[in-house]
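Journal club side-thread
Mid-discussion, someone asked how the predicted structure for our own chain would compare to the paper's figures. Pasting it here so we can look after the session.
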Amino acid sequence: MFLTMFGTVVIAGIVGYLSEKTGWTHNGILQSIIICVGGAFVFFFVGIMFNIGFDSAGMNAIISSIGALIIVPFHWRR
């Protein structure tokens, strides 16, 4: 479980960095990485508690990171 959580953080960080470098988001590199890691952590623990998610832990990390990048910045914009 610890290695899965560590892998989730690494994959979320990569997704945050790549989303910023490709121009998909305009939050800043560190902010995008923090958003992705936070979303991946939340989905990781919710997935453990309620036994939901995809078969692959890596796919869970990618989907949750992208979802967090979509939800968080739009939630705070006016």
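Post-session note: The helical segments are 2-21, 29-50, 57-76.
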